[in-house]
Amino acid sequence: MNExxxxxxxxxxxxxxxxxxxxxxxQYLESLRLNTYVxxxxxxxxxxxxxxxxxxxxSRDFDIGPLKKRLHFSNI
Length: 76
Hints:
Blueprint: H1 2-8, E1 17-29, E2 34-45, E3 51-64, E4 67-75
Antiparallel strand pairs: 1-2, 2-3, 3-4
InterPro entries: Fimb_usher
Organism: Escherichia coli
GO molecular function, one term: fimbrial usher porin activity
């Protein structure tokens, strides 16, 4: 209802979403003690150009004596 009222009053400063896709992949590589995460998101709009977002994340387990830590790297 708010979208209809805003549209009739010409307050349309938002993008009308058409489709949204999200693909994710997560895998733990036990031999390397490495966890990988990849994500792709794509949005299309009726009244604006589409956009695509990528994400990559890596984390690794390691031991320092009795102390166990997780090292995490992330990109985009």
